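User: For a teaching handout, I'd like to show students what a predicted protein-ligand complex looks like in token form. I'll give you the sequence and the SMILES for pyridoxal-5'-phosphate. Please answer with just the structure.
Assistant: Understood, here is the input followed by the structure.
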Amino acid sequence: MQKVPYEKPVINKISAGVPDKFGMKSTIQPITEIDDVAIKNLISEYGSPLYVLSEKTIRDTYKKALAAFETRYPKVQFAWSYKTNYLNAVCKIYHQEGSWAEVVSGFEYEKAIANGVPGNKIIFNGPDKSREDLIKAIKNNSLIHIDHLDEFYEIASVTKELQLTAKVAIRVNMDAGIYPQWFRFGFNYESGEAWNVLNKIMQTPGFELIGLHTHIGTYIMAPQAYGIATTKLAQLAVRVFHKYNHHIQYIDLGGGFASKNTLKGAYLPGSDTCPTFDDYAEHITDALHQSDIPYDHMPTLFLETGRALIDDAGYLLGSVLANKRLPDGRKSLIIDIGVNLLFTSFWYEHNIVPASYTQPDLENTTIYGPLCMNIDVIREAINFPVMEKGEHVVIKRIGAYNMTQWLQFINYRPRIVLIDTDGNTHIVREQETHETMNQMDRLPEHLK
Ligand SMILES: *Cc1c(COP(=O)(O)O)cnc(C)c1O
């Protein structure tokens, strides 16, 4: 008989309630206010639909995530993933909390500089960095994470021409037990490609190898995958040390922690099934402590967490436009929030609730957006109370990606309001208008 391996005991709170054979009991708890500010006041002051961000939730969640890692490992640095939400107000809050910037384009790089982030606190990721972007980043001492060999050659040519040294890391893709595996970004671990490129970097003038990076995917429900990824990066660091007597300054595990949203097709809500920051931190820091990296040269741990930090802080408020009975007898509700404002509705069953107390009877309802497009469905089927035209709804946990991937389509994009930690509200992005839309149009002479 094989000896069963020892596993550390853990206690996990189960807050799923008791589902019966039909799943969870369906009750709908309205959301009438956010951080003590009434929804109806927000809508009457700023319009509908309306994005709302809670500064308190942003800061509290950040502190919780940081504590999960800092209590387990001495050197931790978060870098805010700009593409997750690059509203200036949001970026500034993270930078105030001590977060660096993680950018994936020249546009995001410019934004980070304009937000006052020093160049040497910007991580530059992604496959799309132009020669001009690279020159700027090298001159600013930014951390350039090389994605492919053409980028390596471009950097080699720039540093040679300008007599500069680039601070670089490589992005590594690997089998961490997550499928489908993301292998289109960076260099593969198992095939030896990553090790090959590290040798090229160590042997080419103009490069200073400072880090190792991976981003294994997004909405990763298995924290042990991060343990595997950390171990593989640490093995590369040890190999570099043995061959070149060179110490890697940091290991960057990227983003990908799951937020508490519920994926389409999931049986239990994401709030009950998603790992906590502590779960992720435990696997990552255990792998670092157990690695063969010399103790005096333990690397800084970088994290580029996006969705798990911001999702809970964002709300989308809207209003009922109409009720409609479909020919098959189903009830439907049309609201003023379309999928163009809620990009994540394509993979999440978003939690949508009334903004006031309704009568308790629920009916299976399809919730449509206002667009003249058949795909504009916010919820295919949800048990929902009767709501009248003009009444308000709230969609929870929409802080990640919706304010960057939104599409201007058919309607103007709405305002975004921030509730600060004292409960004051601030417009942090204005609504689009006829004027803003026309600003970029150009009419050829013969059409005037
Ligand atoms: C998108 C992205 C992130 C953030 O990912 P989340 O899943 O939102 O945490 C971090 N790093 C890189 C390189 C990314 O592309």
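For the handout, you might add this sentence: Residues 81, 83-84, 102, 104, 125, 215, 218, 254-257, 304-308, 400 surround pyridoxal-5'-phosphate (CB under 6 Å).
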